[in-house]
Amino acid sequence: MNRLGMTMAIAMGMSGMAFAGTNLVANGDFEGATTGWIKYNTSTGVSTLSFVDSAAHSGTKGARMHVTAASTENWHVQLKFPVISTVAQTVYRLSYWAKGPDVSTHVGISDNAYVYLTGFTQTYTSTWTKFQGTFIGDGTKRRIAASLGLDTGVYDFDDVVIEAIGVLDSTWYANADTRIDSLRKNDFGVQVLQDGVAAADIPVTFQLVRHDFPFGTALNFHDDADDDWYKQMAAKYFWAGVTENAFKWPQFEPTQDAVDSATVDKVLDWTESQGWALMRGHALEWGIEKYNFASHWSRQGTCAEYQVFLKHRIDRDMAFYKGRFRQYDVWNEAFHEPAIFNRCGWELLDSAFIWAHAADPTAQLFLNEYSVVAGGETGTFVDLIKGLQARNIPISGIGAQCHFGNQVIDPAVVAMRLSELGALGLPIMVTEFDVGDMTDGNLRTAQEQADQDAMFIRAAFSHPAVQGIILWGFWDSRHWVPDGGIIEEDKTPKLAADSIWNLWNKDWTTSGTNVSTNASGLMGFRGFNGKYVVTVGAGINAQTDTLQFDANHRVWTYNMDGSKPLSLQKPARARLVATPAGLRIYDLAGRQLKIKR
Ligand SMILES: [Ca+2]
Fold this sequence. Notes:
It contains twelve helices and 28 strands. The protein is an alpha/beta fold.
């Protein structure tokens, strides 16, 4: 591995070992032997497997699964891969070419005892497409199968490759706090001058009251008796957010031109009343066909009509919410839900971004996707975004949903995937973090959830490409995953709520009480970027301001002018550049404090 390769591997959270790129899959090109490849049917699914010329993507042979009787579950018909051996902590990439019916399929990776570990949900088309995903070895065997049981038809596979691409960096998480210090903090100071001369021994008290780094939740108001409590909890734990469903097109405009913005407006009114700096617009479009999306009025006509409707949706709603939504998921789950692209062309994706940028050039525009940090489909997402970048499409952010299901979260894996996305040069938002899944609920114990949530948030906060973290809801009664929230249905905070609150309010806070300015009139401190409440002076004559400290606002200077009357004068606004602002500091008796010169 050359120096650049080594640097990349390290930056991606993998150690810099050399790998030969050997294909671990026996007979993955189907050209000679086909040993190891078998089909599996339950009693309800029926299929045939053949290795034929017409199924070749390259060479003269490919594998063809002909599903002749569909079943109720994907896994009732499977193309099973040759079993492979793995090495612990090694990252493997599976790639293959496939074509087939436009239905949801799943490639699952299990251990040798058939316990499911991870997988990739994919939709094939009538043209050859390359699919890929990564998984992690543990020193035992892996069983891989493409599950094709949901619909009848011919599914072709060729050029199946599994290769080791690196080793996880098991030290990465241990250095999280060092990275957090470097990325999220700066050296700050409050300087006090008396008539332009350094004023020593002036007490300064400071407290971080809001991080610049957005930490938020999906919000879902119900207009019921619980809403007041719900808002109190949202305000306690979060300072950024997203509307869970209300801005999705079918909810926002259920029938053509009958826009229902009331729910979104209510959420924005409330978050703005709380001073939340970031609200995300989710999502301008989602190509999914479930949840009434396929029956939405916009999709009932021709592609030409749909394109007009989509442009109008983007133009109208981004103009309406300009300056309120600062980020948009322009498209949700583009590569997992490609039906609209397969019907009307992938140019739609480019167009949506171009229209969105024109509608609100100040908004940050995201492509949002799942299984790219919580799962191994990062490479597919990277390729899609690289294509947008190569065509100069104005994408300005990467949305990584981070629904982790019931897998154990490994921060080294999180690091590797975040770094693979971060190498695109765009900021990443963790847009929908949660644990548990819709079917099984959250299978973690309270302590496991608390530990895993805190670990993931610490990992993401420590990653240089991550710009913010949003949870997909917080209360079990308003959460898509049974038991998936951080607060019980009965409103009891879970251990996870405490662990999260403690991160932001104990581990990652900055404060000092009555710290004196030094001989240079400076009280210096290292702190998190954000808004602080700062009190200069003491007693009834102390002056308190809310000040922003960040890379561009490192030192706030207070000027005292001894000639002013005996009253505490509050500067209209403390300024970074020293300007006489009339502040004087007095003792409890109203006497001006002596200032050391
Ligand atoms: Ca072949």
